Fold this protein.
Amino acid sequence: TGTENMDDIWDDIFGGEADDVDVDESGEYRAWMDKDSIIFLIDCNPEMFRTIDEEQHFFNAVRCCIAAYSDKIISSASDLLGVCLYGTREKKNPMDFNNIYVFQDLDVPDAQRILDLESILSCNVDKKFGILDHEIPLNEALWICSTMFSNCSKKVGHRRIFLFTNEDNPNADNPDITRVNHQRAKDLSDIGIEIELFAMNKRGKKFDPTKFYSDIIHIDDEDDIGAYDASSKFDELNEKVRRKEFKKRTLSKCNIKLGDTEFSVKRYNLLSAATFNKYVWLDSLTDKPIKTITKKVCEDTGSILRPHQTTYQYNFGGSKISISPNQLKQLKALYSPEIRIVGFKPLQSLKNHHNMKNPSFLYPDNFSIKGSATIFYSLLRKMAELGKMAIGRMTAKRNDSPTFVALLPQVEKVENGFQIEPPGFHVIYLPYSEDFRDLKFEPQKRATEEQIDDMKKLVKSLRVNFNSRNFPNPALQKHFSNLKSLALDRETEEDVEDMLKPDVDGMMKFENMINEVKSSFFPENYVPQPTPTKKKPQGKKRKRDEAITKKGKPPAKKAKIVPEDIDWGEHIKNGTLAKLTIPVLKSYFRMNKIKGYSSWKKAKLIDEIIDHEND
């Protein structure tokens, strides 16, 4: 009664992709560590309201906030967002500082908060908040942001400030305030609060981050503060916000073992398929989420079973093997998280069909094991020089399925002071022998040399500079647009442009070439017709007395199986129960007045018949 059929769970022993979130040392995943909190800190100095190329920086910043709120609702609804304005006549903040207005405290994004932000776009900002004609100390605005994080009752793993301004040297006329600004920014960095700068140019003046912000803002590895480019257009600014909006998180950490040498790495996902967000079941009366609780109940006594009272069952060779939850846990943990290098092969040995799934990327983790970066880069450079790749057995995380991988070296590539490609290893997941299939194809007629030449000309002429980033998924965009319209109570939804439609007008430029290819492959005046679907002819059903077999006699009527006449013990002995149909098997339980069999599968029916007969 406390046994589960192992067949139902065996395939899920290594449940979940390797791209799932990691767990801590106790085996429990701390969900709050992946939560992100962002405060949008917007400068309200008069220059932010000057019209440049028919746009105003302040309203562009607000529109970026609205776009970020919409993205977070779809992708990370549990993240916390807030909006703070500084340089206003009105004040509203927890420290009661002058000229700082907390428009929205840290909280999860929702439709009403988006509507409140949209109301700023249509209001008189000077009348509602007030615009000062002088600067305020930046350190006070940073202090308010720090207080907002401290007052937040929800635990978060990442805290960031998105600063929107066009002032590249705040409080420059007061060295004392400038010194305090630097110290306040350093204090925030020490407690784990990052400052991300989204700069905008003034009219006729380019933003220079080296004057002040180069010492206080957070710089990613691929960014270069010396070549920092400020934005003047909303599209440019919003693109930068979207790149910074989602925190770069590691998939997992593990050690690489090469002989007696061991060093630590972090694993990142370079590509992830965008999917529809999951729906949530709600109570029809309260509209609150429903919490699902599953309990296992003993079939005989009706009592609730505890974890130690249940076992898993697996049928092997006609015998039933019971496995306890602890044994199953040990079975899943075949290896500790590691990449053990077993050898090296030339890069030419790797073929395209060896790539089983999206590759991941390895980067050294000097924090876990000191000196990891030195060993990592030494191995990387030597493998790149020799044109070799490493073959290793990888267990990405605890309870993860071991797999063989190829580690492809990628050296750092820099152009004009910008890092184009970072140094590291691409992890290519290799197939097992069972993953290969022997496909057989029928020989096809080969095209003539003339046809091949015509097709080559066409293919070369229609080539385009393709980039996947330029083609959003229209189905996803339509889905999210509909959700946004429903959430914001709007009658009309936003138009979604389908970028996957072919460029008919552009292809017409090559109409003559296309016609040449048609003439070489198809006869003159050829019009392609859709292939008709073949339907099975339905003749008139004949009566039984009209049906005649090859021997001139009507076919014999199939004998009906009577449950009472079945020798169940003989079937069990010969192992032929599987040859009986499900209705016949279920008749056994009706005959013996056993209940609860209606939803059982065939394997379960056979097992229960064997148990009942043996008893």
